[in-house]
Amino acid sequence: MIIFVTGTDTGVGKTVATAAMAVHFGPELVVAKPTQTGTDEPDAEVVRRLAGCAVAQFTHLPDPLAPDTAARLREVGIPTVGDHATRIRALAGAHGTVIVEGAGGALVRLDTTGGTLPDLAAELARDHEVRVHVVTRVGLGTLNHTELTVEALRSRGLEPAGLVLGAVPEDPGLAERCNLTELPRTTGVPVLAALPEGVGALEPREFRSRAASWFRTR
């Protein structure tokens, strides 16, 4: 099985959600990050530290930009979505389950030919079981962002398997309280997990012990 983790935007909590999913679906899996841009601590290392699982990062670009933009800025070539698919197939053959974390939102270009995470998921769905999970915010504005993301995935033949609420505040306001119900209602996609705000700062042992409580279904 290949599980894709995308988000409604940059900074929505995909990496921490990916680590939580690695704990939930583990232990004999690998997390892949096709393209990393910027950052002092790569997302794959955050996942490895929090979840304790195997990780693989394919490409790194130094500037904190979309992969396509970062590659064009430096005038360097980067792997295509097809190249990424080949490497992920190999990981799936060795590990059984692969979690693939995207970059930014769903339609961010992963290569310089226009390939996106939905394109990568659609390519791999030809010969693997594929699930796509969408990480969302819960605050004001998230209904529009989440519906647009879900619509973009469906237009490419990908039915999202679940929403992951990336950072639910301990004391939610009116919008947050309403959106906990409105997100699955308006998108037609069930909530897989709700991660409390700040869990990415937990010590790894506590993160792993608490992860099961954040999930509503397997």
Key phrases:
218 residues; alpha/beta; 8 helices; 7 strands; nucleotide-binding; ATP-dependent dethiobiotin synthetase BioD; ATP binding; cytoplasm; P-loop_NTPase
Report the sheet-strand fraction: 15-25%
Evaluate the radius of gyration. 16 Å
Mean pLDDT: 95
Order of helices and strands: EHEHEHHEHEHEHEH
- Helical residue percent band: 25-40%
Characterize the overall form: globular
Number of domains: 1
**Helix and strand composition category:** alpha/beta
How far apart are the first and last residues' alpha carbons, in Å? Answer: 14 Å
CATH architecture: 3-Layer(aba) Sandwich
CATH topology: Rossmann fold
Strands of the widest sheet, in order across it, are 3-2-4-1-5-6-7
Low-confidence stretches: none
CATH level-4 homologous superfamily: P-loop containing nucleotide triphosphate hydrolases
Biggest beta-sheet profile: 7 strands, parallel
Number of helices: 8
Total strand count, please? 7
Q: Identify the CATH class.
A: Alpha Beta
Give structural notes:
Mg(2+) binds at residues 15, 43, 101. Substrate binds at residue 37. It is found in: Cytoplasm. Pfam families: AAA_26 (PF13500). With 218 residues, this protein is of the alpha/beta class. It has one domain: Rossmann fold. The protein has eight helices and seven strands, in the order E-H-E-H-E-H-H-E-H-E-H-E-H-E-H. It has helices at residues 14-25, 43-51, 67-74, 81-95, 117-124, 142-155, 174-187, 204-210; strands at residues 2-7, 29-37, 54-61, 97-105, 130-136, 162-168, 191-196. Strands 3-2-4-1-5-6-7 form a seven-stranded parallel sheet, with helices on both faces. The radius of gyration is 16 Å and the shape is globular.
